[in-house]
Here is the input.
Amino acid sequence: MTRRGFLTSSAAVAAFAAGGLPARAEGAPARIGYNGDFWGASIAAVASDQGFYAKHGVDADIKVFTNGPIQVQALGADSLDFGYIGPGALWLPATGKAKIIAVNDVGFSDRVIAQAGINSIADLKGKKVAIPAGTSGDMLLRLALQKAGMAMSDLNIVEMDPSTVVAAFSSKQVDAAGIWYPFVGIIQKNVPDLVELAKNKDFYPQNTFPSAFITRNDLVESNPDLVKRMIGAIKEAADWRAANQDKAIEITSKLLGIPADQLKTEAGYGNFMTSDELVKLTKDGTVNGWFSTMNELFKTFGKFDKSLDPKDYYLGDMYVEA
Here is the structure.
C-alpha cells in the first residue's frame, strides 16, 4: 500500500508553492524534518503556511520522513539541521545523539491493535507483531508486555515502516501491531473488527509520552542564533495551532495529502500546548521530569544502561528565552 502522506520533499514544497504558500523564505538556510502524521507535521505545515519561518529569519527546506530515528541518523550524517521525534525515539538524545530544542505535545494516539480473536496481550505469545522500531508504537508494546509479565522475545517481532504496517495488518499478514493514529484509523477502515489491546492512557500519568523537536549537537555550538530563530518559529506556530485547531488540521492535510477527517481523529489524541504552558512546565521542572521517567523506562527496556541528565540534552533555557 502506498501512503499518500509520504510525499517527497520536492513534492511537498511544490504543493505549497502551487497553493501560493511561502514554502521557502529569505533567511538562514535550514533543512527541517517532519513525520507524515498530524503531530509530526503540523508545526512545519503551520510555520510554512503562516510565514513563521520567514518571520524568524529561517529559510526552511522541509523534508518528510517515516519516523524519528531516521531523522536522528540524518542529523548525524549532516544532511538535516532540525528534526522531529516521537516519544519512542527520546532515548537517542538521552544518549547524546541530538539536542531537544522544544516539546511538541504530550500524545495519546498510540495503540497496540490485534486481529479479531486476539483479546489480550497474553494472547500475543508466539504471534507475529509488526512495529516501526524505535517509535512510540514500539514503546507502547513494550510497556503493555511489561505489565503482562512478558517480553519482546515472547513474540515474533517484525520491524516495518508505518505504511507497511498498514498494508500488512490490513491483509492479515501480521497478527498485531504497535502503531498510532492516523494509521490506526486507516487500518480500521480495512479491518473494522480489529481489537484494541493497549493505549497510552493506560499508563498515564506515570508514563507521559512527549514528542519533541531536535537539532544537531554541533549546530548548538556553531550557530546558536539559527537554533533560537527556529525555536521562535516553533513557539509561534504552536500558539497559532492551539488557537486555530481546525485550520491547522486543514493546512497539515494539504501538506501530507491525507484527508482532514483522518488527521482530526489523530489530533484529538494530543494536547494543543501553547508556548506559555511549555515555558511554565520547563521552568518548574515538569518537562525534565517527563524525560527522566522516559529514561528509566528505556533502561528497563534495555535501550541503555546509563543516560545523560535531561538538562544536558533539553535546551530548556534556550526555549524559555527564545
